Amino acid sequence: MRIHARLSPDLGTAIAMFHSDSIAVVHTQHRHPMPLLRRLLAATVESRAGRVLVSRSPAPRAAPGAPPLATPAVARLSAKGKFLFVGDEKLYVRGVTYGAFEPDGQGHEYHDVGKIERDFADMAAHGINTVRIPHTMPPRTLLDIAQRHGLHVMVGLSAEQYVGYLIDRRGAPDIEALIRGKVRSCAGHPALLCYALGNEIPASVARWLGTRRVERDLRRLFQVVK
């Protein structure tokens, strides 16, 4: 499996993901993103990496009076060439970001299991198949709920917060150990799609250090994840 990591100094964004043009990452600061999401779910999205077909597939519903349908399990994914597959079918990602939320007294962001269950059921019913968890490592309970509703999960490792230590390593934590611990907390779960290694690295940092230096650091951390 190949990983493609690229830094855009103009956008200040680092992307570390499966080398696949079946994935599109859409970022918007629009206050009301649902109309945009609805259009995306019914359109063909063109990206620099290639062509991404996004089709709306309504979730199956039980007939009136019939018992509820069993929730599908998430099958293991595989990489073939440029694409991700579930069994023999290509995976076309239809996803949303879930969070951040106000943490509870113990600092747990995803603590309301009932809300997660309802939200994921609603997502699946509207054709969404992937959820991105930013910044905070998801508890296994969240991954279990995602699996029950047939959702794949992209987990953010937030490596971008450590990029400043490339300038001054004094006081730097053991970054590799931190990343390794995050990965181990959800490694091997059937709902796990991939890890997002770096997100929105500041353009000023990329220009100061140079893109190659930042890319080398991302590749080093990718080896830790792998």
Protein described:
The chain is an alpha/beta fold and about 230 residues long. It has one domain (about 5-55, about 70-225). Helix content is about 25%, strand content about 20%. It contains six helices and eleven strands. It has helices at about 35-40, 115-125, 140-150, 175-185, 205-210, 210-225, and strands at about 5-10, 15-20, 45, 50-55, 75-80, 85, 90, 95, 130-135, 150-155, 190-195. It has a four-stranded parallel β-sheet, with helices on one face. It has a three-stranded antiparallel β-sheet with strand order 5-6-7, with no helix packed on it. Helix 2 runs parallel beside helix 3.
Number of strands: 11
Number of structural units classed as domains: 1
H and E order: EEHEEEEEEHEHEHEHH
What do the pLDDT scores average to? 72
Shape: globular
List keywords for this structure.
11 strands, 226 residues, 3-stranded antiparallel beta sheet, 6 helices, 27% helix, 21% strand, 4-stranded parallel beta sheet
Any chance you could write out the topology, listing elements then pairs?
Blueprint: E1 3-8, E2 13-18, H1 34-41, E3 44-47, E4 50-53, E5 77-80, E6 83-86, E7 89-90, E8 95-97, H2 113-125, E9 130-133, H3 140-148, E10 152-156, H4 175-184, E11 192-196, H5 203-209, H6 211-225
Parallel strand pairs: 8-9, 9-10, 10-11
Antiparallel strand pairs: 1-2, 3-4, 5-6, 6-7
